[in-house]
Amino acid sequence: MEISHKLTLAMTIWTVLVLTLIGAQNTELFVIMILIGLLISRELSSVYIRPSIAYRLDAFIQVGIVIFIAIVMRRILSILELL
Amino acid sequence: MERYELLKPEYISKVIGVIFISIAIYLFLMTGHTNAGLASAFIGIFTLLIIHYPTVDEDVAIAELKSGIRSYHNLLDDLNLSKKGVIIPPRNNLTESRVYIPAGKFKKIPDIYDEMTIISSGSGRTGVAIPSPGQPLLEEAKDRIEYEIEGKGVQGGREVMGHLSKGMGLAKSFSFRKKGHDVRIRITLDRYGDYCKNIRDRSPDICTRTGCPICSAYLTATSEALSSPLKIKNFEIEKSHIKYELEEM
Question: ipTM value of the model?
Fold first, then answer.
């Protein structure tokens, strides 16, 4: 099995597991858990994956980080009662 | 048997990705399951962008590896050279690793330059210095780990060998030990065992002269990591284990 297949399988299992545990309740937590899964898989596979796949995985992580920053900003604004 | 275009693995993965994205669109538009929609969209996009299939079939790649090394050794067999080679890392005027195969006994490695293949520097220092057959595989591994191994010692060697084994799947496992000037490498072959045997049966001297491209990648990695020429002292095969004993020069 190619490393990219293992990576996709691992992320699919992780996503389904997170969805099962969180359910339909908390979208923010769900997105953050997916980002954590991405970061772990990127770190564990960094030695074995091709640079082209690494760049694509990094793009997913960058999008995830932007969403994470948005979530944090939203939380801060809601704590300060500005939202 | 002719395969349908849509049943090719690369298309199947794309179809699976599109199905997941379609489910995600349905979940977003028709139901209130936001998380399930997000999960489905993520799996779909991940499948579309991350799954990679090699463009060259494994059988074709193996045949290509065989053809290169066979023609190499057919040439060497006619030159009546020593049966044991020396792996030389880049140094002085040499910018890429070479394998020096002397003609007869020798005490000191002659000066080797990039443009030299046939060496005749007098006082018995004659032989050939050919590019290491495993250099392209090693370059591929080094590009992937984005890590310079030159002079990094045993640890650097193990790092790149780990990628050759687990990342590129060239061997099942390896062992790399150094004691004084003696270096020992053990490569446990897995799916390339038959390839290795086939090459060895055709050219029995291949393993001690340069090694096949797979073994040569490991030997060249060792030489570059230790930054010193390595003379092949001994070679053994034990089931699927290939053992090399090398000597730092």
Answer: 0.88
